[in-house]
Specification:
single chain, alpha/beta, 8-stranded mixed β-sheet, 17 helices, 28 strands, oxidoreductase activity, acting on CH-OH group of donors, GMC_OxRtase_C, oxidoreductase, FAD
Length: about 625
Amino acid sequence: MAATPATLPVLKSIEDFIEGSYDYIVVGGGNAGLTLAGRLSEDPSISIAVIEAGGAKIGDPGVLTPAAFPSLFGKPEYDWDFHTLPQAGTNGTKHSWARGKLLGGTSAINYMMYARGQVEEFNDWNRIAGVKNWGWDGIKPYFSKCESFDKRISPEDKDSKDYSHLEEHHNYDGPIKTSYASFRSSSERAYHEAAINCGFKVPVDAWSGVNHGIGANLSTIDRSGPGTRSYAVTGYLVPNGQRPNLAVLTDAHVEKVIFEKGTDGTQVAKGVAFSHGGKSYTLLHKGATILSAGAVMTPQILELSGIGSKSVLDKAGVECLIDNPRVGDVEDHIMSGITYNLVDGEFSLDHVNTPEVFTKLAKQYAAGEGGPLAHGVSNSGFLSLFDVSTEEERKNIYELVETHKKTLTNDFDRKREDMLLARLKDPKAAILQFISLNVNIDFGARHDMSIFLGQSVGTTRWSTCVGLHHCFSRGSIHITSSDPKSPPAIDAAILDHPVDELLMSFGVRLIDKILNTSPMKEKLASRVRPTPEVDLSDTEQAVKYIKGHTGTEFHPIAGASLGLVVDDELNVKGVKGLKVCDSSIIPLHISGNTQGICYAMGEKAADMLKEDRRAAATTKKLGELTL
């Protein structure tokens, strides 16, 4: 049964919502936003309002059933369904950019992979942003705080060496459930064995900050029942749904932040203007407004509010309050891959689209027995440039980076490329991610997610994906109009940098090597994508394939980066009373899917705000004592 204000009191009607008095307004009820709001609500003296543009969808079977997530893409009740500008690096394709538009944000529609990244990636945040508290030591405790780790594996895998973890890197009572796959096909086991036969090793614990190697994957799936999505709503909203100091309004579109000029001339955020049900409203805060609207909407709201590049704002007809040209930067992970037909008798998730098979699997799932409908990604790997290239190829890559760096005009971008180059020169640095699924993926259909991830009827296929997790290319997200309902222009800059296409070509070449290694090669029939005549060992042919079969991995960051747009306390530079807490603040990408860092970020931000309030209260008391 769907949640309502009667069953979940934190969900408010517009009348009740605007009558409230709030210390903090959280714009966006996604990964970081609900985490932040839920933790702040632990203090009964703090009042929090959450404004979400989408609906609630609490208890929605399409959200909760793990294997159902592809059916949510492109549907306006779940997905913003953004599209990029034509991308020169991918033959002019306008790429689909799915982002969750409902409570839980993209944590409600993603593929539930749980990763953390590498130690030095986070330490680089401190270095490049000039901050102190966002390195590995500053963020790792919050990865643990949000996690509830289920270490069980299926009986069929009891002797498998694919699974490895260390107890000290995990927590067992956090809000977000993480678990290994409860179902693995024989081809999934064969793939991992083939990777080991190619010389790759299983990380001791891929969530410890050292993830180099290929091993089992953790998903945010709750295995206490048949297997359901664990996401920001189930972890941070529903358990706190009775708290009187937390109010959530859905289907409300924030249009801009409201500012007033302070006595010292500084712009001070007072609240937000938003629309709901065709009417306009204003909501004021007593403490701060926190933008947690996501990688696309947060920079859009900043620009609509007058914070961004003056040239961009002038063209859009928005008065510029703070001229900051780094608002709206974007960096992403990109993904391509290879698809094969499986031999007869092998299971594929493509079978789910067959009516009789779906009926059988649905009954199994409804009976609490899990099965393929509770399926998550069973394996994941992170490899370095050294793992996928020759010495001559690496030398060429290094020279390309140095040549390109000479064209850069500011210190941040040069420093960024120096850091990326250092990673390329590290044999243990995670540059490329490898994920395999026994399902058809149309890597050439990045304009339409219903085709890209749409399971095919009548096929039995296997796909292995490669994701570039440290792209040199960097794009932008900018408003083109003062209309808050007009989507921003997204230039993802996919394959803009010559190094990116070479790194991806090395990745698909390695995939084909693994797939043609025993025991995996015995599971496969003909190659579907690319067609058999394409020689992936030929760099020119591999790059040509990549340019027609690469798109987003759905992990955009950097629209309000640490150091450039916000400080280490997440305050937007140049104004007061406005903070950002979502993937927009990430200044340099990590190796790993981003939902894990968004939960950790929300946890950390909540602690920071609580500490600020404690310090302010102490200062006030001391002041009273001295009067």
